[in-house]
Design goal:
Helix content: 25-40%
Shape: globular
Distance between the termini: 52 Å
Number of strands: 14
CATH topology of the largest domain: Uridine Diphospho-n-acetylenolpyruvylglucosamine Reductase, domain 3
CATH class of the largest domain: Alpha Beta
Number of helices: 11
Strand content: 15-25%
Length: about 300
Amino acid sequence: MLLPKFEYHEPKTLTEAGEILRAVGPDASILAGGTDLLVNMKRGKTAPKHVVCLSRIEELKKTAKEQEALTIGACLTVAGLREVEQVGADFKGVYEAAGSLGSPLIRNLATAGGNIVTARPAADLPPPLIAYGADIKLMKENGERILPLEEFFKGPGETAIEPGEILCSIVLKEPPLYSGGGYEKLGIRRSLEISVVNVAAFLALDGPSGAINEARIVLGAVAPRPIRSPSAEGALIGQEPDERLFQEAGQKAAEDARPIDDFRASAEYRREMVKTLTKRALKRAYEEAKVREWRRWK
């Protein structure tokens, strides 16, 4: 299938990109890795008159560690994300999610920001990023704003991004001592599969054998957008972590899920899998949290 006709723009700076978006207005689509936009254009699902490619804006591909936070450029590829030392060391849930996204070819093209702005309910990166409390930086020609990622998603394909805005970076604060994260994904196949269900967990403990003082459980592919599980989180906080507690949290998470029936799985099956994946993600998070005292950032 051929692409529809469009005018192509390739700015070299964010300022130039903002000027182009202001000039062409709502007839523009932003291109990063192209793994979603180009496919949808070929299928006739979208036909923008202007395509603004961000691939030559170098600042959008960089990472920086400063003021106890890690900033990740939105145009860093998913494969590149897995090569960032700080991600592998301190944000294991994000690292695991990046490794489960598509094939090596897709990971070399797809970008961290692209996996967010498409707002797919089953996307891999949003659940662990939300579990770690990520913020995003959005910029347009006349300024910028910081938004918690959790507040960015409105529904399938719908976000809080405003006309002319560009998602520039993802900001992850340094995790506390004795904290950890985990990510679990279920697909019909072992690889190259969209999530039937995915779950991310984050735990912070009072100490290596202490009670849970902070918990976040984020569910994907079981609602119109990634959702927290307040019931599971409430069941965890203040408790001593163990197998029974994680099983109870899985049950609570399943009650908070809002899955639907579709061609990949029934709502009932998805709800059952939320129980299992939540328990697994919590066990991963707990195992990391018990030993995190020696990885304090410098």
